[in-house]
Amino acid sequence: MKSSEVLIRRLTSADAPAYRALRLRAFHDHPEAFTSSFEDESLKPLAYCEQRLSEASSCIVWGGFVGATLVAMVGLERDARPKVQHKGLIIGLFVAPEVARLGIAKRLLRTLLAQARESGLERLALTVTRGNLAAEKLYLDMGFRCWGVEPGAIQLGAQRFDKNHLFLNIKAP
Q1: Dihedrals phi, psi of 4, to nearest 5 degrees
Q2: CA distance 128 to 148
Q3: Tens digit of pLDDT for each residue in 88-120?
Q4: Angle CA 104–32–147, to nearest 5
Q5: Which residues contact 115 (CB under 8 A, 6 or more apart)?
Q6: So where are the chain's domains?
Q7: What number of helices (H) and strands (E) belong to the chain?
Q8: 39 and 28 Cβ atoms separated by less than 8 Å
Q9: What phi and psi values does residue 157 have, to the nearest 5 degrees?
Q10: Rounded to an integer, what distance in angstroms lies between the CA atom of residue 144 and that of residue 153?
């Protein structure tokens, strides 16, 4: 399979069942990578995902599809408060392992960056679990820079994971 065989598009409320399933898979398989937990998210009704993917949401989510199957996702959250409307937060990037290494994450991020620029955002931020080398490399290769590390940001039982905080200035010259 080639990356070009993967369709990248914005998700809508109609995609909520597939989106919910992929989110739960990500949270279950990689609990150290996400602030949300499988346990909490699995209790939320499908309507939560439908609202999150609606036009009225402060979050835009893109998905990568192989045929009709959602295999990857990434979100962009924008705060409504006036003092921080110039920046967005990248959330929930996940690519199913069976389609990893095809450049899908980079395509999703490029789509997100184009939308962010078009909508007037000037800066993007994200966090990545320290030690997730593939994700760290992807973000750094795309121009993100680390501005700090939050020690013990994620706790799973007795184990804690640090989070790298990254940013990218995207304001057009």
Answers
A1: -65, -15
A2: 11
A3: 999 999 999 999 989 999 999 999 999 999 999
A4: 75
A5: 60, 76
A6: 3-169
A7: 5, 7
A8: no
A9: 60, -125
A10: 20
Q: How many CB atoms lie within 10 A of CB 61?
A: 23
Q: Locate tokens 């994200």: which residue? A: 126
In tens, the pLDDT along 146-158 reads: 999 999 999 999 9
Of all residues in the chain, the percent with pLDDT exceeding 70 is 97
At 15, which amino acid appears? D
In DSSP terms, 89 is beta-bridged to 77, 125
Distance CA 167, CA 149 (A): 12
Residue 82 clears pLDDT 90, i.e. is over it: no
Neighbours of 28 (CB within 10 A): 14
Q: Is 26 helix (H, G, I), strand (E, B) or coil?
A: helix
Class of domain 3-169: alpha beta
